[in-house]
Specification:
alpha/beta; six-stranded mixed beta sheet; 18 helices
């Protein structure tokens, strides 16, 4: 007869087998090109493709095709075959690692047999990215292309140009998919190159494998984590970028495990029930059956203690029986008046049996005490485990309620008119790619992440220490001012962190000290040419020559010199006049002058001049 438990399991299995299948079909194509015939061999693409392919397989994809070092014809054939598999798929993913090239705004994937001697060979020897988009287009829910092809292209350096005006870009060009629910992830932003790193795998591939297969994690959030990891590992030199958009629902690469809706059964409950059943039986056979089923663990140790208790009881009962038999033998011999030797022997046997009985009784009491203590410890342990389980379920319920509340708040913000948000069109596009699920970071991790993002956008100058102090609050208020947001600066919130991550570059302006000016994300010293200096407006201005300015001390000295000169007697000086007489002409003496006319009592010595006289002071 089939046991009841097995019968129930069979009924459930039959019901599940007959029900409809709701699992989404997911397919992936992984290509890694390293062994180029006309260019140096790349070290990481084959390793990266193998790593990412293994990630898709572990994630439970229905079909994962990993191909390495493909020629142009092989790549076209693989894309054609993959397009056939995507017709009945819900999710289709293509990962390519190798060389790529951009020609006049169009991106191409380079097979290993390409030579690319001229720019015209690009059209014949490479595979356009649009061909990969065409291959994933039949998928119903998600179309994803991951291009780890932004490396420095050696072909562009030797390629001959048929037209001098034809542009060959650095890295890959920006792509805007036209099909809905389509995303294209670049290892580096359009127009920049990616690094292979110093290890076996590139930083981009390592981050993909770390975050994409997390159950229930939305792809937009996953690629945001990939971006953070790559920026951190490359010293902010390489920034992955995602083009395209998805709808409002979460789109994880791996579905989340169904959350438990009720109290979770403790795996020890079945063992505990069997232990209590054996405890009620309290027989050697019951405990031996329990130990055969559960030979190790907490309850097994308790069962062994119960076995020792039963053994002590059996020993005590046997000793008691022997003591009673010896006592009866002694009484019989006395009654029959047996010889004294036989009576002494019977008395000694009775005494030994009584001593054995007493020892067995003591051992039984010891084992009983041990068993009682073990039972007490068991009840305490079960109570502690039940309390811990209840606290865990309460914490999970609180987290679920908080996540639901935050999701409701985000949904309420999403329905507000675009005019109220006052966001530019570029920011709205970035917001469409922002992750929707609520943050599960701790308060310290959330604060530290928020400070790091504030430093990245130029609003915070101190280090990220996880302490939401006044400097952090001022920096968030500054971000609100320049980003047009209205977050509460006193709190470190997950919404503010999401808004910061959506900003691709600096938000707060760079403020430099006097004598310096902003140059990108750095302050450089202002250098003026000869004859110029830094003025009050922090600009170079011509140096003006200083005019002498009289001071109070100079005027006092001048007045003193004038008074001294006026008070001193004048020195006699030559007048420059000539006087002539009968003896000749001579200069008028110093301090003297010529006077014409007649002076009483004096006779002119110069009759020729009409009587001029020399008069001295």
């Amino acid at each position: 007869m089939i046991p009841f438990r097995i019968f129930v399991l069979l009924i459930l299995a039959i019901g599940l087998a007959c029900g409809p299948a709701h699992a989404d079909r997911r397919v992936a194509l992984v290509i890694g090109n390293s062994a180029y015939k006309s260019a140096p061999k790349l070290g990481n693409p084959v390793n990266d493709a193998t790593l990412v392919g293994g990630m898709f397989k572990k994630a439970g994809f229905d079909s994962v095709d990993v191909r390495l070092d493909l020629s142009a014809s092989e790549m076209r054939r693989m894309l054609r075959e993959f397009a056939g598999r995507t017709r009945d798929a819900d999710m289709a993913v293509i990962y390519y690692a190798g060389h790529g090239i951009e020609l006049e705004g169009t991106n191409y994937l380079i097979p290993i047999d390409a030579t690319l001697e001229t720019d015209g060979d690009v059209l014949d020897e490479t595979i356009p990215v649009e061909r990969a988009l065409f291959a994933v287009e039949p998928a119903k829910q998600l179309r994803l292309i991951i291009l780890d092809a932004c490396r420095d292209n050696p072909f562009s350096k030797t390629m001959k140009r048929t037209l001098a005006s034809r542009a060959i870009g650095r890295g890959l060009a920006k792509v805007e998919p036209t099909s809905p629910n389509t995303m294209i992830a670049f290892a580096a932003k359009a127009g920049s190159t990616a690094s292979d790193g110093d290890s076996r795998n590139s930083p981009f591939a390592t981050a993909l494998v770390e975050h994409l297969p997390k159950p229930g994690l939305d792809l937009r959030k996953a690629f945001g984590f990939v971006r953070d990891d790559v920026l951190r590992s490359t010293g902010n030199k390489q920034e992955p970028f995602v083009y395209g958009s998805l709808g409002g629902d979460d789109v994880p690469l791996v579905s989340a495990k169904p959350a438990a809706t009720g109290p979770q059964a403790n795996p020890q409950d079945s063992i505990r029930r069997d232990y209590e059943l054996a405890l009620q039986l309290a027989t050697r056979d019951g405990w031996e059956a329990f130990l055969a089923q559960y030979p190790e663990g907490f309850y097994a140790n308790l069962a062994k203690g119960q076995m020792n208790k039963i053994a002590a009881e059996e020993t005590r009962a046997s000793a008691e029986q022997k003591a009673n038999a010896a006592e009866q033998q002694k009484a019989r011999l006395i009654a029959e008046r047996a010889q004294k030797a036989e009576q002494d022997k019977a008395a000694a046997a009775a005494k030994a049996a009584e001593e054995a009985r007493v020892a067995a009784e003591k051992q039984k009491q010891i084992e009983q005490a041990r068993a009682d203590a073990a039972e007490h410890q068991r009840k305490l342990a079960e109570a502690a485990a039940a309390k811990a389980q209840a606290e865990k379920q309460a914490a999970e319920k609180a987290r679920a309620e908080l996540a639901a509340k935050q999701a409701a708040e985000k949904a309420e913000q999403a329905v507000k008119p675009a005019a109220d948000r006052q966001m530019p069109e570029v920011e709205q596009k970035v917001a469409a790619l922002a992750p929707a699920p609520a943050s599960t970071l701790s308060v310290a991790d959330l604060t530290k992440s928020l400070q790091s993002e504030l430093r990245r956008v130029g609003c915070l100058s101190v280090t990220a220490d996880g302490d939401w102090n006044s400097a952090s609050q001022r920096s968030l208020a500054l971000f609100n001012k320049y980003a047009g947001t209205q977050f509460d600066a006193k709190l470190a919130s997950a919404d503010a962190l999401d808004a910061l991550k959506a900003k691709p570059g600096r938000v707060c302006p760079l403020i430099c000290s006097f004598g310096s000016k902003a140059d990108g994300d750095q302050c450089v010293k202002i250098t003026c040419r000869a004859g110029y200096r830094v003025g009050d407006d922090n600009e170079c201005e011509k140096i003006q020559e200083k005019k002498p300015v009289a001071t109070r001390e100079d005027s006092r000295r001048r007045d003193t010199d004038r008074k001294a000169s006026e008070s001193s007697p004048s020195r006699p000086e030559a007048s420059g006049q000539i006087i002539c007489s009968s003896t000749g002409c001579r200069p008028v003496q110093k301090g003297c002058r010529l006077v014409s006319g007649t002076i009483p009592g004096r006779v002119s010595s110069n009759t020729a001049t009409g009587g001029n006289f020399e008069v001295c002071n």
